[in-house]
Specification:
Luciferase-like_sf; single chain; LLM_FMN-dep_put; alpha/beta; nine-stranded parallel β-sheet
Length: 361
């Protein structure tokens, strides 16, 4: 099972000091956080993609390429690649290039984003969001698997005898997760291709997550990729820790109360009760994360959101120390002990390459 962190790259004032980091500071902080993730033994760093203030990660492959050059082991991913407003040809080229530079330590998560105005900025119509996601990914899937592509669709110019370059490393495309919070069509799409399904899992109650994951698992089996239990599932989560739970609540409350994503709404206590947010001790994080298995089944990737709402870099790095030293080692052991035989590990370039070699023998 893989453990890591994902960032939305927000530039948010620190409510305790009133200071807002510059864009440069925020970008550099994200890099520092990724390097720290590898240092403390995490497996994955994932960045979002946004094209509007107050977010900075408009070019994920640029950031991940830089991080790839400074790491050795970390899997580099997106937590959203906008399949609706990016040209699938450019996605195919950019991520294949990154895959070569990172020696295969690359995957990506397709999503539609959460900002409506981005569609017209890139010449698209938000009312076509699902249709764009379906058509664009169908083309991307072919571009990575066919050396010469002839294609015609609704949303871009046709392709005739087109070859995307560079070709995927070792002939193995990057593994794709389809990320969704609420769209069953995206769970269906992930199941159809036998790809991974990532549920954001930071806002919604457990029963909603359970329904989405069960839909994906059922349809994965329907399309003949394996049993429902063998489907590849990832979950998000968000935590804030101190060794003493009261200290964690006291320190995090001012950030929670004004956070752009959930401030000025339910209380911190209500939100932690009704959603996967955990604010407390490392042991409380362990217990709540292990409980995800009760409604999502045995899954392959757990990512945590930790660097948002204006939290200073020093605090985030302290959180990562706790995560790497006290939380993830226990989670690895406990999840491994609970996992039945036959449930696959998270896909990696090496495992996908080995599987492809077996099928071509």
């Amino acid at each position: 099972m893989q453990f890591g962190i994902f960032s939305v790259g927000d530039v948010t004032p620190d409510p305790t000091s009133g200071r807002t980091p510059t864009e440069r500071e925020r970008i550099k902080a994200m890099v520092a956080i990724a390097l720290k993730a590898e240092e403390v033994g995490l497996d994955v760093f994932a960045t979002g993609e946004h094209h509007n203030p107050p977010f900075v990660p408009s070019s994920p492959t640029t950031m991940l390429g830089y991080i790839a050059a400074r790491t050795e082991r970390l899997v580099l991913s997106t937590s959203t690649t906008l399949i609706t407003t990016n040209d699938p040809v450019k996605i195919a080229e950019d991520f294949a290039m990154l895959q070569h530079l990172a020696d295969g330590r690359v995957d990506l998560m397709m999503g539609r984003g959460n900002t409506g105005p981005v569609y017209p900025w890139f010449g698209q119509d938000i009312r076509q969001g699902i249709n764009l996601a379906v058509e664009n990914y169908a083309l991307l899937h072919r571009l990575w698997r066919e050396d010469v592509v002839n294609w015609e669709g609704k949303f871009r110019t046709p392709l005739q005898g087109f070859t995307s370059t560079p070709r995927p490393l070792d002939g193995v495309p990057p593994f794709v997760w389809h990320g969704s919070i609420r769209s069953p069509e995206i769970a269906e799409q992930a199941a159809y291709y036998g790809d991974g399904f990532f549920h954001n899992n930071i806002f919604w109650p457990a029963d909603h997550t359970k329904r989405m994951v069960e839909l994906y698992r059922t349809r994965y089996a329907h399309y003949g990729h394996g049993t429902a239990e063998q489907a590849i599932v990832g979950l998000g989560g968000q935590v804030f820790m101190r060794r003493n739970s009261q200290d964690a609540v006291r320190e995090f409350r001012p950030y929670f109360d004004v956070a752009p994503v959930y401030g000025h709404g339910p209380s911190l206590e209500d939100f932690t009760e009704q959603t996967p947010l955990t604010v407390g001790s490392p042991q409380q994080v362990i217990e709540k994360t292990l409980a995800f298995r009760e409604y999502a089944g045995d899954y392959q990737r757990q990512l945590f959101l930790m660097d948002h709402a204006g939290l200073p870099l020093k605090t985030v790095l302290e959180q990562l120390d706790l995560l790497g030293e006290e939380v993830v080692p226990v989670l690895r052991k406990e999840f491994a002990a609970l996992r039945p035989a036959g449930v696959p590990d998270a896909p990696t370039h090496a495992s996908l390459k080995a599987a492809q070699e077996v099928t071509t023998v």
